[in-house]
Amino acid sequence: MRRLMPMLAGAALVAGCSGPGPAPTRATEAPSESTPTSATASSDVAPFTVTEVASYDEPWAMTFLPGTEYAAITQRGGQLLVRDMSSGEVLTVDGAPEVKAEGQGGLGDIIAAPDFDQSGHIYLSWVEPGDGTSAGAVVGRGGLVIEDGAARLENLTVIWRQEPKVEGAGHFAHRLAVSPDGKYLFVTSGERQKFDPAQDLGTNLGKILRLTLDGTPVAANPFAAQGYPAEEVWTLGHRNPLGIAFAPDGTLWSTEMGPKGGDELNVITEGANYGWPKVSNGSHYSGEEIPDHAAGDGFEAPKVWWNPSISPSSLMIYTGEVFPQWRGDAFIGALSGQSLLRVDLDGTTATKAEVWSAGALGTRIREVEQGPDGRIWVLQDGSEGKLLRLDPA
Fold it and tell me: Could you tell me whether strands 173-178 and 365-370 are parallel, antiparallel, or unpaired per DSSP bridges?
């Protein structure tokens, strides 16, 4: 394997290209009939320019590979790509896993291992089939090799699985984050539109998990004494947590899709129960009400929430210098909300700020990432989802 060349700052880019209650009646990740949120005023005047760099077929996640000129991009249908951010050359990675690309399922998140510059390891999530029509998310770790004009995955090994596999094609979540100390892998696991599993420590559905870097449960996890799968669990009571990120002060945050309304931004605290499906600031799609979060109910309430829904798809907490006014703030992609949102973070306090929904940002946003030079990158959702670069105006 050849040594990959470090990325040059400012390199030129090639333009172009649940508890008791009624089950949901449709997939809640991407309801096309939903309208954008009115919870925060939309801003058509942004302190950045938006450049269309490329387009992809249902892009789902991206990550910049440390110490290289490459970014890795997943497409929901099962393709893993690497893009040379200097030349614009795109390689399809051989050895990507077989996925069940159905509904909200398919190839999912990708992040680099803490020791990527030595090991070349990446973590990848995807949906695999089970018996019959069942399915479940998995996380794998393997080596990403880029040499001689080609790219491949080596020794990709599954290190975690959603248990049990169930029928349906929604609420997999499977977002990934590594703790700032580089010791732990955090995995979000949706409740698969089944409600009750979110409160059941006999399953890892509807949870956020803390694992070692090889996928084993951490001995000091809050429910470790109860054995598998409770020993994996860091927090419970989640519906469809599709974003997870650490702030510079070490606080762990997560975005979560609520039902009809009640989308959430949460501080993730060891052992806490976030209430789904017993409480929510939204309602069932049937119109049946769910008790709101309330002081003293025993559940962790969101720091901010959205009603009507925005369908938060991803979470990035900004740490760069290109936009110094936003250091430490959260950026959230919205699917049904068709916008990019900023939330001001101050310790564990969150305050809604801008919603950008004009031009190229006025569409379904799947992913938000920070580049190594501090620029912000956005992936649109869909069959011709564009890769966008945000630069200071």
Answer: unpaired
Residue 171 annotated to the active site? yes
Tokens of 124: 């990848």
Q: How far apart are CA 239 and CA 236, in angstroms?
A: 9
The total number of residues shown for the chain amounts to 393
Q: What is the pLDDT of residues 282-326, one digit of tens each?
A: 999 999 999 999 999 999 999 999 999 999 999 999 999 999 999
Catalytic-role residue among 171, 238, 284, 293: 171
CATH architecture of 55-309: 6 Propeller (2.120)
Which residues are bridge partners to 147 per DSSP? 150
Q: What is the C-alpha separation between 109 and 208, in angstroms, rounded?
A: 15
Domain boundaries, the chain: 55-309
Type of residue at 129: P
Give the predicted TM-score (pTM) of the model: 0.90
Rounded distance between C-alpha atoms, residue 53 and residue 74, angstroms: 16
Residues contacting residue 321 through CB under 8 Å, at least 6 positions apart: 327, 374
